Amino acid sequence: MKIAVDAMGGDHAPQAIVEGVALAQNDFPDVEFVLYGKESEIKKYLTTENNITIVHTDEKINSDDEPVKAIRRKKNASMVLAAQAVKNGEADAVFSAGNTGALLAAGLFIVGRIKNIERPGLMSTLPVVGNPESGFDMLDLGANAENKPEHLLQYGILGSFYARKVRGIGRPRVALLNNGTEETKGSELTKKAFELLQNETSLNFIGNVEARELLNGVADVVVTDGFTGNAVLKSIEGTAMNLMDLLKTAILNEGFKGKMGAMLLKDGLRSLKAEMYYSKHGGAVLFGLKAPVIKTHGATVPEAVRQTIKQIHTMLETNVVGQLVEQFGKNAE
Amino acid sequence: MKIAVDAMGGDHAPQAIVEGVALAQNDFPDVEFVLYGKESEIKKYLTTENNITIVHTDEKINSDDEPVKAIRRKKNASMVLAAQAVKNGEADAVFSAGNTGALLAAGLFIVGRIKNIERPGLMSTLPVVGNPESGFDMLDLGANAENKPEHLLQYGILGSFYARKVRGIGRPRVALLNNGTEETKGSELTKKAFELLQNETSLNFIGNVEARELLNGVADVVVTDGFTGNAVLKSIEGTAMNLMDLLKTAILNEGFKGKMGAMLLKDGLRSLKAEMYYSKHGGAVLFGLKAPVIKTHGATVPEAVRQTIKQIHTMLETNVVGQLVEQFGKNAE
Q1: What are A202-251's pLDDT values in tens digits?
Q2: What pLDDT does residue A275 have?
């Protein structure tokens, strides 16, 4: 299998990306990596050339570029070339830590949608707090600014597929994010989506969940529209970051006592931080495309790159996308 | 001024409510309290009868009652009687810690909307993390399952009014919650709302904000639809609760070392908890009604009741609702 890597995307590129690829190359000798970006920069951090090819380009997409314009105008950007390689059948998946909007655009316009999937969704496996082995897949986290009930039904099917094939969950519990748990709750969108999800017999639909319960592991797959998903994800991130800062301030304000206390709690605080900031489940998938297109955080570290490559490896090994193509082709016959 | 108190609402009623009223009665000798509920129960916790009247009723609305049905059928419920008292001009405001949906229904159907305000919104002053004196007013937090752009404009006006009159902020910065900060971002709803807010010259509209930035104090008033507002509020609450639990577990897992560490950090951890759980800004206002209708958390403690009474006192003193009635009456002429 061959992974096209945008080596220039993210705050710490190319160093973090290249170092992460080197770790992953060691884990997965069956993967060939093609790194797109500035050759001289990439080579600075490359410790091995096993299964690694560099395709040089000077152009890249910046974090503040307007996504669709950037994709159309910067034809030789590292991200665009990586997506193009997948389109041309020269690679099996795209990895990037760059501009999320641009990667979504590259995914939709270059890699392309699976037939009969109307609106691919951005999906992440989010952590269940207190249980690092566990997680839940949520989509759409913001690929779309709004969705129809039919899209939410497709997200249920997509998420359930991913949870089964990639995460190995036998019969994933699929839930709808709503403003109350009762069946009658919701907006026009969620009421109709509830009906569609309930009538889809292939799903183990468990009904509505509220945002307060998400991190408790109430479901394996959580379905929502892109606007709400985006707001919820950013609320969780913002609250967690603010609380960690507050905790740090509380420790500093205690002076020497605080330092002593923090030292005694070192391991506990470290595991707290690890649980918050670092996902062993990999990056965000733009799911519903003809190939895996995966985004990891802009501030990514090599270990996170490695975990995301692991995720891509599982997606390719299980052929989850190929199975989706078959499934949705069948549905429409 | 006279406040109608639903003494039977909330998890710790009537004790927490009655004890909180006693504290507030001491702060505000100009307030008369009418407590609706089981007289014998209320009297158990009543240490003073200064400015306090009890109106006995055996009926109450439970937390799992279906809101609209409960309001219609339980004509003598403590919450219904309190709302009725305001409608009849026997009291100036309603306070409850009970069933939120039922209080919204009682507010809309018994107290009634201000003329020309289409959809009253649920508004809270949420904390700015790291700055306990500061906060921002956000609405709608879930009074409505969906909203039109015109409602969001009204929320901007309502929130700005509250921030000026009740919180004493000279020229409140009003922002729209959106899925990106750029002007062109958003759903159909937020794009139209953006235009309306920008054209409303009476507002100091500062544009879009993202959910990640909310707790940083980027705005004084944040406007959103009820579905998103509900999801965001619950995401913030859920994340904060989960992180505090995780911190507790981290401390316990360290055994003796953890206990020592936590002891050294005691004051810091206490202030962290205080900042998270306890709002000095009071409860949630169903704003846009003919009188203040205020909800405090079901798990409320006497000190929170006191702060919420303080908030109601300011709302009555500044006559913010009376001024809204005048303002919206004028708008429609």
Answers
A1: 999 999 999 999 999 999 999 999 999 999 999 999 998 888 888 888 77
A2: 63
Q: Say yes or no: A242 contacts chain B, CB-CB below 8 A.
A: yes
Element (H, E) at A43: helix A39-45
Average pLDDT, stretch B225-235?
97
Higher per-residue pLDDT: B280 or B107: B107
Half-sphere exposure of B97 (CA within 13 A, CB side): 30
Assigned token pair, A33? 């990596």
Q: What is the DSSP letter of A1?
A: -
pTM exceeding 0.90: yes
Residue among B117, B166, B163, B181 nearest B143 (CA): B117
Residue pair A127/A275 in contact (Cβ under 8 Å)? The answer is yes
Indicate yes or no: CB of A265 within 8 angstroms of CB of B250: yes
Cα distances from A252 to residues A257, A260, B250, B276, in angstroms, run 9, 11, 19, 18
Selected residues 68-107 of chain B with any CB under 8 Å from a CB in chain A? none
Q: Are B198 and B149 in contact (CB under 8 A)?
A: no
Strands (E) located in A153-292: 173-177, 204-209, 221-223, 284-287
Contacts of A305 (CB under 8 A, 6+ apart): A16, A17, A19, A20, A21, A23, A24, A95, A97, A296
Q: A179, A182, A185, A209: which to substitute to probe chain B, counting the most B Cβ within 10 Å?
A: A179
pLDDT at B273: 67
